[in-house]
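During the second half of the funding period, the structural biology subgroup turned its attention to how the target accommodates small molecules. The most pressing case was zinc ion, which had performed well in the primary screen but for which no bound structure existed. We therefore specified the complex as follows and requested a full 3D prediction, including the ligand pose.
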Amino acid sequence: MEEKNTVINDTLTCNNCGALLHFAPGTTQLRCDYCGTANDIAPAVPTEIRSFDYLEFIQTDGLPSTDTVVAAVVQCDNCGANTTLSTGVTSDTCGFCGSPLVIAKVRHERLLKPHYVLPFLLDGREAEQLFFRWLGKRWFAPNALIKNVKQIHRDHFKGTYLPHWAYDTETTTTYSGQCGIYYWENESYTTTENGRTVHRTRQVRHTRWHAASGQVHCSFKDILVLASHSLSRKVADRLEPWQLERLQPFDERYLSGFRAETYAVDARAGLALAKQKMQSTIEMTVRQDIGGDEQHIEQQQSDYADIRLKYNLLPIWISAFTFKGKIYQIAINASTGEVIGERPYSIAKIILAIVFGIILLAICFILLQGV
Ligand SMILES: [Zn+2]
Ligand SMILES: [Zn+2]
């Protein structure tokens, strides 16, 4: 089998000096670090971004086809992330957990070619600035952590393309349940006032329930599912929204100088996760359809029609640090600059803030008593 590395390619060397070129974030150019030559990634006539039929896609998924690329992949011994490496890299650490990667274990794999790539808009320096601004606002982070993390150098942030599935579908949901409508009734009661028993009336809220059933339709577009396990799904969801209008047809030149993670969640498993993401919208639509003041949904059955998908690579700057034996990840959306980080909390600082708040309240109370 003829093996070709996706990253090292004839088109990725400088026309002028022959050095390796890197994609320059925020541009459509490959740049040479040595002589400064910029080679434009021929911006093809803007192509319409489209989705592909899901059923057709899963039938051919994994089979040898022309829509594959061969990439040099290295697996992290610690967290299992499979990433392609930047060109010319001889030693490196895993962006997802910070462990050293064993470059000698690089293997060449035939992978499904992504449909689209969202090129990096922010470079490493901008990512680092965003990170420090974010860190400055973390009030309850332990001091030891802040000191530790401030030593994070730009090189600790790894520019990585994350694999994502994006699903479109039309849903039809048949449901049955109950619609609750409030009504008020006067109720008399007795109570004791100044040692005497008195009769009073008050308004009490009741709910009248009646059966409700029907059918609702929802239209979903670009429901994103992270197609790997390396980044916490919670962090990945919070990195949304992405500027998907900037997607470009996949071109390996956008990967030059960056890593790309290979997908570990296939299109079928991804669809199951997408359905979970769509469920809250479907349920809200059902509740609106039932109407009234309160709703019970007893049964619901959804049909997903015209499922379409895209396989996208989305750009993040990722770094991980270990604090007291636990791994924390910080991810920056490299198209919007959104910083999403996990971090430990300092119990001491939180207790201090609460105690301070109580003292402040006590002082206010004493002052008010004095008036
Ligand atoms: Zn050059
Ligand atoms: Zn790792």
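Two results from this model are relevant to the next phase. The radius of gyration is 28 Å. Residues 176-212 form one domain.
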